[in-house]
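Let's practice the habit of predicting before peeking. Look at the sequence and jot down your guess about where helices and strands might fall. Then scroll down.
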Amino acid sequence: MFSQADFLQFTQWSGIATVVFAVLALLAFILKWGIRFRLVGTTGFMLVLTAGLFALSLAPLTRTVVPGALRYSLVYDNGATKAVIATPVEITRSELEATLQQAASDLFSYGRLASRGEDKLIIRARTVIHPEEGLSVPLYLGEVKRSLASREDSQMEIEIYQANFERLTQLSA
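Done guessing? Here is the structure:
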């Protein structure tokens, strides 16, 4: 993944290319070349590209990685205060905690809306078990509650559903 310094370097090179195309377009108008309008379009495109690269050099593009977290898939997200992730069946308690922390970090957004006085994002983790042939049952293993207002939430509440976790270990044994 590129860093802010990389995008600043790309902006510099793109800016140089923009100036070169602008000079070529000006020269094309003076000498009445047939491609003069194409060069104007290319210069405009380069201006937009340079502005975009400059914007990327200002904004941080960081992603928090929680050690021990497993890959998960987002099953449900209402865009406000509720989300559900799916985890593998072969998950340990420590991996579940790390995965819930990872999901809390990944799904945080300042654009989420608080609804009915709720100021917490609740992310529940589930897996699918098969107690008998042809039957699939979702089993909720835990949840994390985090603040909707602050990216760095030191008050995250992680709850593991012990009874469901024990049921999972019994079925996989």
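How did you do? The mean pLDDT is 86.
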